[in-house]
Each structure stands twice: as structure tokens, then as C-alpha cells.
TrEMBL record, chain B:
Domain ABC transporter per the UniProt entry, residue ranges: 4-238
GO MF assignments: ATP binding; ATP hydrolysis activity; transmembrane transporter activity
GO terms classed as biological process: quaternary ammonium group transport
Keyword Electron transport: no
Organism: Neoroseomonas lacus
PANTHER family registered for this protein in UniProt: SPERMIDINE/PUTRESCINE IMPORT ATP-BINDING PROTEIN POTA, SPERMIDINE_PUTRESCINE IMPORT ATP-BINDING PROTEIN POTA
Name of the protein this chain belongs to: ABC transporter ATP-binding protein
UniProtKB keywords: ATP-binding, Nucleotide-binding, Transport
GO terms under cellular component: ATP-binding cassette (ABC) transporter complex
Length: 573, 356
């Protein structure tokens, strides 16, 4: 009976199904990801083996890139700097994470706020703050020190290798903090109780049980900071170049000075890429090892460890870190931004709004840079967000057979240092046939690609949290797939997607390493202009511009906290 | 004309057939459960009926209209069905009333009618006062009622329920069982109910289809399923039982030489012979301290070898004299016998079932 009705009723829907729009969408997404992720990387690799102008195959670029002691020293310096910064960050952050997560230390809210502030502050602004604090001649700390002791030598000098590592660590430690704290949050108090009952005191239990349990997270954070540091441009350029310390990123920058030698830069960037890929593979391997609580996700009961008087010691540590990373640099920056001459200190006759006025109304580039930053960040956050949402939806819901390939491409930029990606974008799209050099589009696309993994991880988590039955319930009641997404899925994802958009906006608005290689005369961003200004040495104007950048960031963070939740920036992904 | 017909319905992932040639027919207004252990293919069957999973073979038709054949599938939204999900899938961004009104609005009913039917429906499930609450403010049982209201209010051709009570605590589960049956008695919607809980299936269903390894083993009314299981799997899965080797000789069913009565009574054809498997429920036996006066009943002398007190009943293991059998028998709480005691076991021959 049913077979006779079948062709008439059921054949039409079958033909419709074959042409489900999802297939076309998949092709479009693959194309977009190839343009954004695969092509620049491939071009980077190809161009590193090409002779300039002629395009003939050669390995000469690699000989040029590593032919001089100076270039090899830069590579070694980068590795040392990365190790030292990561080590300092770990020393700073692990006790803080332990104190906030597991003890009865007071002032946890304050500590959180300071970690967030250190995280939000662009590292190059911190570097400028520390020049004002610890410059050998006129830095505040040294001026006060000479005044107090009558000494002639400076107490501290920021223009040194350790000084540079220290400044970098002061703005990277939040990553270790977030990693370790979220792992500690999962350790059940019973783990410590079991050690206590066998005779271990608080400190022994922490050393022998708690910390070893989160060891993979500590190492994971260490590796991440190492990688961030070797790919960092701002601080090494602002502090390292005057101090004559050359690292890979500043060396890459020199290859881009006239005459631009992209081929050599590409060849020189390859080890950075390989190290990053290798280290992330190591980190993945380590975190996937079984037997660590941080990976099981089991909570169990949690109680605060009673520290007694020691809790004031822990608070002291957190306050000291807050002073060094946020309060002091911010104070001197603000002072300088409102000062006629920052060296004259805090006094009424030194106060002025002139620096802000000059930047906002008279400077020929600054207002445009502010606009560029907002527009580029907003556009790239939107592109990355939409792309990430579509890819994550297809991957999580397994709508296509090769959906995982999309997810892989979307996550790929995670293992590409921003500076390497920028050179790839330059190589692929700056010149003919697209000739995007000097256009905003080049920067927007590069930012979108660079921060795609952040948006993707965010979308993926958000979609996973929406049970597929939510959509199925709508469909069985009569709504098509798109209607179900519009009515049910989209409203449920709204908040977390907004959170993801804001995070990308914030990191894009302060991005320097990628932007510096791609900006043209009319597409300077605030971060690039800030670097230009700092090279001119007019610190009052630099500080005022930094103040404007911080103000914009704080407005966005404030919106995020209001609409998405207090910790939207610091969730571990 | 039957309401829902599944014919040769099959779903294979690679070479593994998770649903294998399922045949099932539901009359209009009938309530049928798909009962089976996890992984037996019952949820996949339900999701094929709903249209979320495309079958590899076989057909699904409603009122004689084919909804699904290999390569030709009507999407879920055009099937006129509704479904209650394991997770409830109540949309947290809509109020209770908006959740219930969703399907009605899609059917383009006038606003007043939507309003009227939502109000009526919420009253039926006793949620009238909570119409403007958000789901996050409701208890698990209340969310379950919203799911029921949302699914029933559209008057679906077929209502599908996917283990709807598995997330509730024991007391609430019992209450909701009767609520589901009550709503069915009120609206007479043709219903397919998936569960692994035989108590749920028994309390709610007109008929139960027991599934195992992708196949339907038996479809019957709950009491027939219990007293006359047709396969070894059904006998073991629905309730507890003694599975025993028996022989058929000269039209009589023999258990270790003791007659269990005529073979025709246990559902065997007249010419059957040889060895068969029989299911004997613990409740089909009575334990007597003294030999019964009348000898027409089937009585075995036995020794108690183990006993367990379960509160509601005693659970005895007995060995009939002259056999190596171990029989499980249930007895009321007051009928206590010591281990080692000699007793008489009376078997109700009507409850002896031959199984495949």
C-alpha cells in the first residue's frame, strides 16, 4: 500500500535534500578559510625559496638569513628571552593562583581585578611605563634612589636583557594564572585531606600533592608564554632596540626596512613557525596525559585552606605584583599624559590637557588611527565571529562528512605566530595581483585570520552548550532548519557570541606585531602610531595616546562585563 | 486504515545494523512502547519515525502516506508529529506560554485561538499559574509538563516520547507515568514511547514492542508479555524468570520427567516433540509447608537451598527432589521457610511458557 504512494509524495523532498544550502555554504567556508589561513602560509613557504623579482627557485634566502652572526644571535636571544620571561611569569603567577583558588587569603576580588588589568594592558604600554619608572637616568625609581642615598649609579636599569624579560613577564603572567587557577579549581579538597591525615602539613600537602596535580597546566602556561614572547614585537622594539638587544622579531622588522626583503624575512621566520608548532604539539601531548585531576573535570568538595598569619604574606605577594604590573606603570603613564614635562613630577603647575588636545585635534595621524583601530577591530571581530560560528555549527552538529577539515583550518592560526602570519599576508596579498598594500582590507583580513581560533573556540563551546534536542524540538513542531536556528539557537548563543566578539575586538585593538608589517600611510592603527611616537621619544604624548587606547579598551571591557559576565575575558579556552 | 506503519525499517552504520527490519503497526489512538536495553536500536527507530535519522531501508507511512523510503525522506518539520525529548529541550529563552504556543504559531492559527488553546492546555497539565515564568524557574517535573503541553497542544498525528522520565527522581517518575497515561486517555493521540524501564512501559502502554539487537522480539499487551513471553530474551528482560530445558513427549510437556501438563497449553503445536525451552515465573509457583489435599494440581517435592528477604517478598531457591534443578520462587513476606526445609512446590501450568 505504502509503496504505491511513495514516488508521488516522497520523491520531491529527496531532490530538495541533495541541494541543501549547507553544501554550498561548506564550499564557501572552505574557500574563505583557504584565503585567510592556508594561502598566506603557503605563500610564505614558497617565497622563502624564491629569488627576489625573478621568482626562480633558490635556497640563497636561507643563507642570507642565517649567514651573519648577528642574525643567529637574535635567534638565540629570542629563545633565552622566552625562557626567562616564562620562568618569571610562572614564579609570579603560581603562588597567586594557589592563594586565590585554594586558600582563605583576603583580597581575592582585588587580586582578580589586578590580574584582569595586567591582562588588558597592552604590553608595549607597560614597557613605556617601565621606561618612565626604571630608565637609568631619569626613571622615577632611580631619581628617588639617588635622592635618598646620594649614589650616582642607577638602582635599576630597564634597558637590559633581564629588565626586558621582567617587563614582558609582568604582562604575560595572567595566562599562567588562568591556566593554573582553573586546574586548581578542579582539585578536590579530599586530595589534600588525604595527605593531611597521613601527617603532611599545609605546605607539604601543597608541594607534594596539590601542585604536582596541576603540573601539566603550569607547564602549559609556561610554554604559551614562551611562544608569546618569542613572537612579541612591541616590548623588544621599545626596550631592546635602544639597549642594542636584537631578537628575531626586531630582526624581521629590519628585513622590512628599505629595501624590503620579504624573501629573506620569510626564510628567517620559518624556525619561529616550526618552534611554535613543535611546542604546541608537546603541550598537547602533555595535557592529554591521563591521571591528572586537571583533566578529569571532576569537582568534589572544596574547602579553603586556612593559612593563619601566612595569608597576609600571600596577600603581600599579590599586592606587590599588582603594584609592579599595574599600579606603578599606570600611575606614571597617567601622570606623564597630563604633564607638561613628566620629569618635573606631580605638581599643579605641571598639569595640562595639552597632550590630549594635541592628539585629538591637531595631530595629522592620531584621530585617523583611533578610527582605524575601532573600524579594523570591529570588522575583523565580525568576520572572524561569523566564520567561526558557521564552521563551529557545522563541526559540532556534524552536518557534513568532512566537517572536521573546516575545524582544523579554523584552529590552524593558533600555531602560527602573529608576526609570521603578517609576513605571510604581506607576501600573499600586498603585491600584485591583489595589491592590497596600504588598504584597510589587508589588515582586517590578517586580524580576522589571526584571531579566528579565539572566535572559533568560543563558538564551539557555546554551540556545544546548546543541546541539539533544543533545535529538534522546534523542527518536529514544524520549523525548518534555518527557522529553528533563528528562533531557538541564535537567541541562546547571543550572549556568548557577544563575549567572543568583544574579546576579539579587544585583542585586535591592541595588536602590534602583525599590524606593524601591514600598515600603510593611511592605515596606521593606534598600536603602530604609539610605537612610532615612542621612537620619537616624546613620552608625554605617547602616554596620552596610551591613555586614549586604554580608555577605549576599558569601555569595551565594561560593556562586556555588563552584558556577558564579570569573567568573560579570563575564561580559560 | 492504521495510523503509523513501519515496514522493514532498517538503519545501518557501515556494516553494523543498529535497526534491522523493524515491522510495527499502530492503530489510531494506540499507545505503544519500544522497550529494550540500551543500544537495542529503540531510540534510533524513534528518531527515524521523527525524521532526524534517515533510514537505510524500509518505509514509514502515516495514514497511508509514505513519509520515508530509502533516499526519499520528508523532513521532520513536514511530518505533523511532535516529540518529547530526554533533555525536555524546553527553550530557556521563552516563557512557558511561548514554548507551548510555538507549534501553534507555526501552524498560522489566529492569535485568539493560539491564546485559548495554550491556556486550556496549561490548565490540563496544571501549569496555568506559571504561564509567564521562564523554564529556569521551574522544577524538573514542571519542565516535563511544559514539554508534554508543548507536544500535545498541536494535536500531532503521532506523539513520540524518548525516555522522557529518565531524568526525574523515582517518586516523580511514578507520578509522571500516570500523568502521561492520563493525558493519553484524554486526547487519544497515537503514541510511540521509548523506554528501558519495563515498569514505565507496563503502566503506560496498550502494547509493548520488546527490542533486542535492532530487532523487535515480540509485540503484545503488557500482561501477555509477562505471562506468555515468546523468546528467551523477552522472558529474561521483562521481569525475572526460570529458564528450563523441557521435553515434549506424547503431547505432554516434561520437566526432568515431571509432567507440566499438555504441551498445547504452553502454546506448542500438537505434533511438537523433542527438547524445548520453557519460562517459569517465580510468581507462577507457590511454596507449601504441607502436601496439598487435592492432587489435580502440579506439585513437586523440593528442598529450600537459599533464601533472601526482599521486604515485599521472599526470594527462595529450591531444588525439586530427584533433580539437579535450581528454581527461583517468590513468596509473600509471612511465608517464611528455613534453608534445608522440605516443602511442596505447586506450579500453575497456565503460566508455563515455551520460548524460542
Amino acid at each position: 500500500m505504502s509503496s504505491s504512494v511513495l514516488p508521488a509524495v516522497a520523491a520531491r523532498p529527496s531532490r530538495l535534500r541533495l541541494f541543501e544550502p549547507i553544501t554550498l555554504l561548506w564550499v564557501a567556508l572552505i574557500a574563505a578559510l583557504l584565503v585567510l589561513v592556508a594561502a598566506p602560509l603557503l605563500k610564505l613557504l614558497v617565497i622563502s625559496f624564491e629569488e627576489q623579482d625573478t621568482g626562480v627557485f633558490t635556497i640563497q634566502n636561507y643563507f642570507t638569513a642565517y649567514g651573519r652572526q648577528r642574525y643567529i644571535d637574535a635567534l638565540i636571544n629570542s629563545l633565552l628571552l622566552g625562557t626567562l620571561s616564562a620562568a618569571i611569569s610562572t614564579v609570579i603567577a603560581v603562588p597567586m593562583a594557589w592563594a586565590v583558588s585554594r586558600t582563605d587569603m583576603p583580597g581575592k576580588g582585588f587580586t582578580w581585578a589586578m590580574v584582569l588589568a595586567a591582562f588588558i594592558m597592552p604590553p608595549y604600554l607597560g614597557a613605556i611605563g617601565w621606561i618612565l619608572l626604571a630608565g637609568p637616568n631619569s626613571g622615577w625609581i632611580n631619581v628617588v634612589w639617588r635622592g635618598l642615598t646620594g649614589a650616582t649609579d642607577p638602582l635599576v636599569n630597564i634597558y637590559t636583557f633581564t629588565g626586558m624579560a621582567f617587563v614582558i613577564a609582568l604582562h604575560s603572567f595572567p595566562l599562567v594564572f588562568i591556566f593554573v587557577k582553573s586546574a586548581l579549581d578542579l582539585v578536590s579538597s579530599e586530595m589534600e585531606d588525604a595527605a593531611n591525615i597521613l601527617g603532611a602539613g599545609t605546605w607539604t600537602a601543597m608541594r607534594k600533592v596539590t601542585l604536582p596535580l596541576v603540573w601539566p597546566s603550569i607547564l602549559g602556561g609556561f610554554i604559551l608564554i614562551f611562544l608569546e614572547t618569542i613572537a612579541l614585537f612591541g616590548t623588544p622594539a621599545i626596550i631592546g632596540i635602544p639597549a642594542r638587544i636584537n631578537v628575531v622579531t626586531t630582526q624581521l622588522w629590519q628585513f622590512f626596512e628599505d629595501p624590503v626583503r620579504v624573501e629573506v624575512a620569510a626564510a628567517y621566520a620559518i624556525p619561529l613557525l616550526l618552534i611554535t608548532m613543535g611546542m604546541i604539539a608537546v603541550q598537547k601531548l602533555m595535557l592529554s596525559r591521563k591521571g591528572f585531576v586537571s583533566q578529569t573535570g571532576k569537582g568534589g568538595e572544596r574547602r579553603e585552606v586556612k593559612l593563619g598569619p601566612w595569608r597576609w604574606v600571600m596577600l603581600g605577594w599579590c599586592v606587590a605584583v599588582a603594584m609592579l604590573s599595574v599600579v606603578k606603570p599606570l600611575t606614571v603613564l597617567l601622570q606623564a599624559s597630563f604633564a607638561k614635562a613628566w620629569g618635573r613630577g606631580f605638581s599643579f603647575d605641571n598639569l595640562t590637557l595639552r597632550n590630549y588636545e594635541f592628539l585629538l585635534f591637531e595631530h595629522d595621524v592620531a584621530p585617523r588611527a583611533v578610527w582605524n583601530t575601532v573600524w579594523f577591530s570591529g570588522a575583523s571581530a565580525t568576520i572572524a565571529g561569523v566564520l567561526a560560528l558557521l564552521v563551529a555549527y557545522i563541526v559540532v552538529r556534524k552536518l557534513m562528512r568532512f566537517a572536521d577539515a573546516l575545524g582544523f583550518l579554523a584552529m590552524a592560526p593558533f600555531v602560527i605566530p602573529g608576526i609570521v602570519m603578517a609576513i605571510g599576508f604581506y607576501a600573499a596579498y600586498a603585491g600584485p595581483p591583489l595589491s592590497l598594500y596600504g588598504s584597510g582590507l589587508l589588515i582586517i583580513l590578517a586580524f580576522a585570520a589571526r584571531f579566528l581560533p579565539i572566535a572559533y573556540a568560543n563558538s564551539q563551546a557555546a554551540i556545544r552548550a546548546v543541546h541539539p534536542e533544543m533545535e529538534e524540538a522546534a523542527r518536529i513542531l514544524g520549523s525548518g532548519r534555518l527557522h529553528a536556528i533563528r528562533k531557538v539557537t541564535a537567541p541562546l548563543l547571543k550572549t556568548s557570541l557577544l563575549g567572543g566578539w568583544l574579546v576579539v575586538f579587544i585583542v585586535a585593538s591592541r595588536e602590534l606585531s602583525a599590524a606593524i608589517f601591514l600598515v600603510g600611510p593611511r592605515t596606521r592603527t593606534m598600536s603602530v602610531l604609539l610605537y612610532d611616537l615612542s621612537e620619537q621619544g616624546n613620552f608625554e604624548v605617547v602616554a596620552a595616546f596610551g591613555g586614549i587606547l586604554l580608555f577605549i579598551t576599558m569601555v569595551i571591557v565594561g560593556i562586556g562585563m555588563k552584558l556577558v559576565g564579570r569573567d568573560f575575558m579570563l575564561r580559560r579556552e | 486504515m492504521p495510523r503509523l506503519v513501519l515496514s522493514g525499517l532498517t538503519k545501518a552504520y557501515g556494516v553494523i545494523k543498529v535497526v534491522d527490519g523493524v515491522e510495527l503497526t499502530l492503530e489510531e489512538g494506540e499507545f505503544v512502547s519500544l522497550l529494550g536495553p540500551s543500544g537495542c536500536g529503540k531510540t534510533t527507530t524513534l528518531r527515524m519515525i521523527a525524521g532526524f535519522v534517515d533510514p537505510t531501508g524500509g518505509t514509514i507511512s502515516v495514514d497511508g502516506q509514505a513519509l520515508s523510503a530509502p533516499g526519499a525522506v520528508v523532513p521532520p518539520e513536514r511530518r505533523g508529529m511532535s516529540m518529547i525529548f530526554q533533555s525536555y529541550a524546553i527553550w530557556p529563552n521563552m516563557t512557558v506560554a511561548e514554548n507551548v504556543a510555538f507549534g501553534l504559531k507555526l501552524r498560522k492559527l489566529p492569535r485568539e485561538e493560539v491564546q485559548r488553546r495554550v491556556t486550556e492546555m496549561l490548565d490540563v497539565v496544571q501549569l496555568g499559574k506559571l504561564a509567564h515564568r521562564y523554564p529556569a524557574e521551574l522544577s524538573g517535573g514542571q519542565q516535563q509538563r511544559v514539554a508534554l503541553a508543548r507536544a500535545i497542544v498541536v494535536k500531532p498525528s503521532v506523539l513520540l516520547l524518548d525516555e522522557p522520565l529518565s531524568n526525574l527522581d523515582a517518586n516523580l517518575r511514578e507520578e509522571m507515568r500516570f500523568e502521561i497515561r492520563r493525558l493519553h486517555d484524554e486526547f487519544r493521540i497515537t503514541t510511540v514511547y521509548v523506554t528501558h524501564d519495563q515498569g514505565e512501559a507496563m503502566a503506560t502502554s496498550d502494547r509493548i514492542a520488546v527490542m533486542n539487537a535492532g530487532r523487535i522480539e515480540q509485540v503484545d499487551a503488557p500482561h501477555l508479555l509477562y505471562t506468555r513471553p515468546r523468546t528467551r530474551f523477552v522472558a529474561g528482560f521483562v521481569g525475572r524468570t526460570n529458564l528450563l530445558e523441557a521435553r515434549v513427549e506424547d503431547g505432554a510437556l516434561l520437566l526432568d520427567g515431571v509432567s507440566l501438563g499438555p504441551a498445547s497449553q504452553a502454546g506448542l503445536p500438537a505434533d511438537a516433540r523433542g527438547s524445548v525451552l520453557v519460562s517459569l515465573r517465580p510468581q507462577a509457583m507457590a511454596i507449601l509447608a504441607a502436601p496439598p489435599p487435592a492432587s489435580d494440581a502440579l506439585v513437586l517435592k523440593a528442598v529450600i537451598t537459599e533464601r533472601t528477604y526482599l521486604g515485599e517478598a521472599w526470594d527462595y531457591v529450591l531444588r525439586p527432589d530427584g533433580t539437579g534443578l535450581h528454581l527461583r520462587a517468590a513468596a509473600p513476606p509471612l511465608e517464611a521457610h528455613d534453608v534445608g526445609a522440605a516443602v511442596w512446590l505447586r506450579i500453575d501450568p497456565r503460566q508455563v511458557a515455551v520460548v524460542e
